[in-house]
């Protein structure tokens, strides 16, 4: 296996690699800094530990200082403690859990948009038990006023489509350490699971906005025809 540059250029690369390849949860001292590693499926989670707390049962609040994804030795959420302990050059920048969170949100959004475009009727059947109606209360006057406002803003009818965007915050789902590791270990399954939850809880909202904008788009086209 060809190891990444960050590992090859780390001052303690050999010692770290040997430790990583040992599957047992354990402590190891690096440059006077005590680290603890725990393996969670394909991830190794590193913690910076007070040197007096070598007994796992006595640990108070070990500080997360890095997460290694074993299939490609990609590092996430790297803290200064890990940089200093294993001697990683400061010019190496690693993605954070927030970076992965945004990536997952983007992939969930893309998946759901694709399903809406290609399997809308099946989605309506699968997720028909919603907490609100799939159909909005259409106010004719509101549709007309909205259509006029969009046309005045130089928005074309063919450009007007509802495009839902997923976010953990909007869904009021906390992106916990457990979720972070699950998304690393099970990329595709995590995206599918989150998309399913979003559709179960919010297809009614997506449907209402999609139908409403469809009505606005048709009204805009009618107004354009009358003005021609």
3D architecture notes:
- This protein is an alpha+beta fold and 228 residues long.
- It is built from eight helices and five strands, in the order ααβββββαααααα.
- A hairpin with a 2-residue loop joins β2 and β3.
- The longest helix is centred in the C-terminal third of the chain and has 41 residues, at 187-227.
- It is elongated, with a radius of gyration of 25 Å.
- The model has no long low-confidence stretch (mean pLDDT 92).
Task: State the separation between the terminal residues, measured CA to CA.
Answer: 67 Å
Q: What is the tally of helical segments? A: 8
Mean pLDDT: 92
The general outline is elongated
Topology of this structure?
Elements: H1 5-9, H2 13-20, E1 26-30, E2 33-40, E3 43-49, E4 63-69, E5 74-76, H3 80-86, H4 97-118, H5 120-126, H6 140-152, H7 177-185, H8 187-227
Antiparallel strand pairs: 1-2, 2-3, 3-4, 4-5
Helix pairs in contact: 4-8, 6-8, 7-8
Question: Could you name the key traits of this structure?
Answer:
49% helix; alpha+beta; elongated; 5 strands; 5-stranded antiparallel β-sheet; 228 residues
